[in-house]
Amino acid sequence: MSQKASRDRRLACFIFFEFYTVRKIQAIESNEIFSLLNWFSLPTYKELSNYLKVSISITSAIFLASVNTSLPRIVSLIIFDPLSVGLLAGFVQIGNVFVPLLNGITQAAMPRLGRCFQFGKIDEFKKSAILLVIVSFTSACIVLLVSQSSLSDDFVKLILNETFASYNQYFTLVAASSFFAYFNAVMGPVKIAQLQYTSELIQNLVVFILLIICCFGLGNIFGLEGIFYSIIIAQAFRTFWLGFTILSGIKNNS
Fold this sequence. Notes:
mainly alpha
């Protein structure tokens, strides 16, 4: 959890710097800045207010995203016993097996995405985003195939232990949620590259509320499986919202 929060903070700092740099470049190219020495000048009050607004939006969005990651385990701890919480955490960890890879690829693509969108190179922006989607979809297919193969038990034993292998039915639910989770892992930064900071904050807040309702409701009805269902619902909801907002951003900038 601390590693993910640290990664998100580094990404936020990078995006903030990229935002500042792009705006300066645009000012130079439009002759609003006549000397390169102004590159090193202190920001004006208006600029500082804008940067502060962006920083607060990004920080709040990242905080809520971190809370949303832990929320199913917190609810499980309230409703169920520690064994169920351990099962949930273990299988979710298996589902996140490709997340570090996707995060690394996405962070490497962020400078290109940001520059393409800011300078109106929408076709290049689309190509990079589509490539990220293909990588996420391929990763999710691998997880799903493993969960449905005869090697699923051995895989769970290798990653976790034999205790988790006896609850292997949860692996299929985690694999199903990975289709949405992996898409969200790559498309969240793509959305931020479009400078949609406020929208990201609102989306994470809505997902937080949705998770609370679903986890308590479905958890009490279906038990631990209800928590996995809640994760799938929340991830799917975020996927469709991300897709809609990203496409809207592309349309508005075309």
